[in-house]
């Protein structure tokens, strides 16, 4: 089986504090996957390692058969939880930037989405509200024809209408060759859109199943199951 | 990719440098113009004050250019590679080395620009674009027994550039070493600066001592004599060459450290 | 088309139900062409694979059929529609009887109450 993401026995510690223990996970193409777990469970650490901005301590990890590095960065599109553009850049500069560095970037798609959102290409990043900035970054990330999309808390701090827009964008850009990993707390919003979910607890995978199976086996939503599994 | 990264360095900082360059040049022009007008008017109070003030402003501006360059290089490196923008830069399909060297190269280019503006300003102020004052400088040096030729001048310029590269590399290494700390990256950067500065000094002293031993053998007590006919040129050259070698070694070390940390130990908040 | 999903049953099954209802109530008529999977998924706000699974199930049950390059269509058999209506009707009845039961009525009593209710209208 040819996995898009193949991760075996990944270990990562920050100094002496271990965050990922014996983390193993295999993900297929063409799936929208929810990465769910409490704060500090290792979700963001795992995503950062996949994105190539954090190095593992040990273990194996491959994306589409490639090692993490320049080759994997070409096919991974990452949306972190923060504004990562220089505040003085204009929206049209960010488009040019992505176009310059990413061969798989589709300018027309980005421009279309931005005009649909009524965001002027001439506005500076620092002039936009937080929610609008996040939408701009989402648009740019989803305008790449990547093989793996990593969305780290794409809906935190954003109003419900914007959340719907984000989910709709993810669905519209879906293609069977790629997968989307969404790390989030807002499970009930996102559940219908997910194929599979992965529960992460204290640096380990405790569950990896499809949403349908979870509902069928447990007679409850993923959100409800999550609350059970992670009850304090 | 390095070219593209450089392009964005210029886009990000070009306007600022252009601004300070123009300010310095402007003050220089005003100083000379005020002087001329003052002379033509045989001593006008307004213009003689303007002449003095604008000259002072030009000098301050020229000094400020160099300070700003150093400060901005450090700030840019930190903000673009080690803070939020790092999330963008380090997920680009480029090597950590390209990211690092694009900053270093840009810094060198800005510094060359600074020197160019300095030369032009001096040329304006002395109304002398043939830079005849350099010749007088050369004459003074030669009077102390040193032989100066154009080869030496060229090497001297190279040494200045090397010093710039070395300093920038050291600052960047401090930023990267500081970023290894989880809680106090900024403070640790300063701490590393002190450490690396002292290490640099120690290495330089050791290097010079080795030079002396090599050059004078068991005779090196001769250095403490005030009357000597040991050719100064040889000693100056020797010191010079040793300094260059030390600078190159230290620069290489700083860059290796930066590259290693940027590539393998990246830890963005 | 308005989609409503509850939280506790697999989404693809809910999609299957809702499309069946649409066919039974005539909102989707025989020969109607369904939008592409992707479009339907976006409209319903669900995962495309889930939508695909539901549509495949409906095809298997003979309620939809697909033509290679043209898309999916609602099947037009009369018996199909009738069968669906009957299926849904008995589901509604079961539901009614269960609810009445929980209030303490027997099946017979429930029928009487219903008859009286209908007579009043």
Summarize the structure.
The complex is a heterotrimer of chains A (232), B (269) and C (121). Chain A has 232 residues and is of the alpha/beta class.
Describe the structure.
The complex is a heterotrimer of chains A (232), B (269) and C (121). Chain A is α/β, with parallel strands linked by helices and 232 residues long. In chain A, 34% of the residues lie in helices and 25% in strands. Chain B has 2 domains: 13-129; 141-269, no CATH class. Chain C has helices spanning 11-24, 37-44, 48-60, 78-103, 107-120; strands spanning 64-67, 71-74. A two-stranded antiparallel sheet of chain C has the order 1-2. Chain C starts with 10 loop residues before the first helix and ends with a helix. Chains in contact: A-B, A-C. The A-B interface holds A 14-15, 48, 51-55, 70-71, 73-74, 76, 78, 80, 82-86, 88, 93, 97, 100-102 and B 1, 4, 8, 11-12, 79-80, 84-88, 90-95, 182, 264-268.
Question: Could you say which structural class the secondary elements and strand pairing of chain C correspond to?
Answer: mainly alpha
Low-confidence stretches of chain A: none
How large is the share of residues in beta strands of chain C?
Answer: 5-15%
Which fold name is given in CATH as the topology of chain A? Rossmann fold
Q: Strand share of the residues of chain A?
A: 25-35%
Going by CATH, the homologous superfamily of the largest domain in chain C would be Winged helix-like DNA-binding domain superfamily/Winged helix DNA-binding domain
Unreliable parts of chain C:
none
Tell me which protein chains meet in the greatest interface and how many residues each side has. A-B, 26 and 24 residues
Shape of chain A: globular
> Biggest β-sheet of chain C, characterized?
2 strands, antiparallel
Order of helices and strands of chain C: HHHEEHH
Using only C-alpha atoms, the radius of gyration of chain C works out to 18 Å
């Amino acid at each position: 089986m040819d996995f898009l993401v193949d991760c075996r026995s990944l270990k990562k510690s920050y100094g002496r504090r271990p965050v990922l223990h014996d983390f193993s996970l295999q993900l297929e193409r063409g799936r929208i996957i929810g990465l769910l777990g409490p704060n500090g469970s290792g979700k963001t650490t795992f995503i950062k390692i996949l994105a190539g901005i954090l190095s593992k301590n040990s273990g194996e990890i491959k994306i589409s058969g490639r090692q993490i590095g320049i080759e994997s960065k070409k096919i991974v599109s990452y949306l972190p939880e923060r504004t990562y553009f220089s505040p003085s850049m204009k929206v049209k500069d960010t488009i040019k930037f992505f176009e310059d560095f990413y061969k798989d970037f589709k300018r027309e798609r980005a421009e279309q989405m931005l005009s649909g959102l009524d965001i002027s290409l001439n506005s500076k990043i620092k002039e936009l509200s937080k929610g609008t900035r996040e939408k701009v970054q989402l648009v740019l990330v989803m305008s790449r024809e990547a093989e793996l999309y990593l969305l780290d808390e794409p809906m935190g701090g954003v109003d419900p209408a914007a959340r719907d827009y984000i989910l709709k964008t993810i669905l519209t850009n879906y293609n069977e060759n790629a997968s989307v990993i969404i790390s989030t707390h807002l499970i009930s919003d996102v559940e219908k859109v997910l194929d599979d979910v992965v529960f992460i607890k204290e640096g380990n995978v405790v569950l990896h199943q499809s949403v349908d199976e979870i509902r069928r086996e447990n007679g409850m939503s993923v959100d409800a199951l999550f609350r059970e599994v992670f009850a304090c | 990719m390095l070219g593209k990264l450089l392009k964005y360095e210029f886009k990000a900082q070009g306007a600022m440098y252009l601004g300070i360059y123009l300010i310095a040049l402007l003050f220089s022009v005003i100083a000379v113009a005020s002087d001329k007008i003052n002379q033509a008017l045989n001593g006008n109070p307004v213009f003689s004050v303007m002449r003095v003030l604008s000259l002072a402003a030009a000098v301050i501006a020229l000094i400020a250019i160099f300070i700003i360059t150093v400060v901005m290089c450090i700030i840019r490196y930190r903000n673009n590679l080690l803070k939020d923008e790092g999330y963008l830069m380090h997920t680009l399909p480029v090597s950590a080395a390209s990211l690092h060297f694009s900053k270093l190269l840009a810094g060198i280019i800005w510094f060359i620009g600074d020197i160019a503006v300095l030369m032009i300003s001096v040329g304006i102020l002395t109304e002398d674009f043939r830079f005849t004052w350099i010749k007088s400088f050369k004459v003074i040096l030669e009077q102390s027994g040193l032989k100066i030729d154009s080869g030496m001048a060229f090497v001297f310029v190279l040494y200045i550039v090397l010093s710039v590269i070395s300093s920038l590399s050291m600052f960047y290494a401090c930023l990267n070493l500081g970023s290894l700390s989880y809680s106090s990256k900024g403070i640790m950067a300063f701490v590393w600066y002190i450490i690396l500065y002292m290490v640099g000094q120690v290495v330089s002293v050791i290097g010079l001592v080795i030079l002396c031993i090599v050059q004078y053998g068991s005779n090196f007590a001769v250095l403490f004599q005030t009357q000597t006919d040991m050719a100064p040129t040889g000693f100056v050259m020797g010191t010079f060459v040793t300094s260059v070698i030390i600078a190159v070694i230290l620069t290489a070390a700083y860059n290796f450290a930066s590259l290693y940390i940027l590539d393998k130990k990246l830890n963005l908040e | 088309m308005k989609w409503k999903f509850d939280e506790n049953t697999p989404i693809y099954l809910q999609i299957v139900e809702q499309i069946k209802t649409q066919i039974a109530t005539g909102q989707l008529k025989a020969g109607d062409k369904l939008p592409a999977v992707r479009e339907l998924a976006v409209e319903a706000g669900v995962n495309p694979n889930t939508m695909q699974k539901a549509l495949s199930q409906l095809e298997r049950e003979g309620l939809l059929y697909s033509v290679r390059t043209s898309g999916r269509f609602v099947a037009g058999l009369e018996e199909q529609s009738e069968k669906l209506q009957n299926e849904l009707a008995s589901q509604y009845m079961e539901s009614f009887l269960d609810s009445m039961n929980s209030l303490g009525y027997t099946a017979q009593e429930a029928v009487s109450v219903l008859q009286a209710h209908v007579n009043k209208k």
